[in-house]
Write a structure and sequence with these properties.
The chain has helices at 3-22, 26-30, 39-54, 56-64, 73-88, 93-107, 110-131, 138-144, 149-159, 161-171, 211-219, 232-237, 254-263, 277-286, 306-311, 339-342, 345-363, 385-394, 409-412; strands at residues 177-181, 195-197, 203-206, 223-225, 244-248, 268-273, 295-298, 318-324, 366-376, 399-407, 417-424. Strands 7-6-5-8-9-11-10 form a 7-stranded mixed beta sheet, sandwiched between helices. A 4-stranded antiparallel beta sheet has the order 2-3-1-4, with helices on one face. The chain has 3 domains: 3-132, N-utilizing Substance Protein B Homolog, Chain A; 177-225, no CATH class; 228-424, Rossmann fold, CATH 3.40.50.150. The termini are far apart. By secondary structure, the protein is α/β, with parallel strands linked by helices. Helix 5 crosses helix 7, helix 9 crosses helix 10 and helix 17 (345-363) packs parallel to helix 18.
Amino acid sequence: MSVMSMSVWAATCRLLAKHLGSGERLDVLLETLPRQLPADEQKRCRHLLFGTVRHFGLLDSVLSEYLAKRPRAMLRAVLLTGGFDLLEHPDDGPVIVHHWVGVARQLTSAGEAKLVNAVLRRMPAGLAAVVGDKSCEPAALARRFSHPEWLVRRWADRFGVRETVELLEWNQQPAPVHARVVPGGETDPALPWFFQPTTFPGFFRLEGLDWSVVEPMLAAGRIYLQDPATAVAPRMLAVAAGENVLDVCAAPGGKTFQLAEAAGPEGRVVAVDLKGARLERLRRNLSARPQHPVAVLGGDATTLSKNDLVAANLPVAYDAVLVDAPCSNTGVLRHRVDVKRRLRPADVEGLARLQLTILKQVSAFVRAGGRVVYSTCSLEKEENEDVVAVFVDGSGGDFALEQSEQVRPWRNGCDGAGVFLLRRMA
């Protein structure tokens, strides 16, 4: 094994051990990767880390059959990542085991390296038994596809078993990288060859991408990396040139870009998000698109008031408002692979209450005759149709539902979303 190979596998195990200990989000952990790691090693690290966490439930359940007690975080990280390597390359078992014993010798004790050798040699049979179990019972599906059983049961009740299996299979595949090209960019003759056309207008799938080419394009504001599902809410809001637009819960800013493009130089777009890391990320992303200026305001959408807007010299009435609410993320589990490990049934109910609070608070800024789009990246009825129904019923006739769209990953070929257009009566 080369020094280069060892560095990336060791870095992956260190990040996974941190995740196992703290539950910190993977995208946050990846930002701590040493900058001196070459781009191809960073890509490999991301693949190993996301793949291991994506299949965590399966890997952990098989490992538990061979261990008398749960190992410490670093040893567990080596076993899990080695198990994912075996799952991904089942025909290369002996070579992979030898490789991971070498990693264990670097990161753990001699005795623990022997344990890694013994356990990983037994894992292929255990993994094959679970993967080969084609039972459609919720418990078996949950184990095979590394999803919480309660979530599998919820989806089976709502979508049926066949579509639930399609969704589970979708979630377990690595997410492709999509880029939205700024209007007119589709015909740019300098567009790299690895920008592959899709059925989603303005979106390209990046295959075999060269980050040395992509990063300058991002910095120049020519492209933005986002899933095609993110275009549904801005499209439904249908912002016209010259309109005032309010975008709350706006980070990281992909939808904000689309709103600003539509509003044009005569319009006014205000983006709001919580102060701190989210707001800084929003500012950083928006700064790449100075041709479409956006006013950025730090604030909590649950308490945002007209006084906050007046103090910032911003409008208090808007033609169009986008509420892309915080949610359970059950429609984006391809990208947010760590969500499955921490999501609980009570979270869905709590998020629905938060979403309704935000929608009620922000609706006060919609002018008479104006509209608001409420959207989530959740597949759960409680966070989508139910929130909208309660809001409309409680609005005293001020708002009416005009249009809705449910994006289903296994049907639409992109992330999941719920999007609803509400009109304020004149």
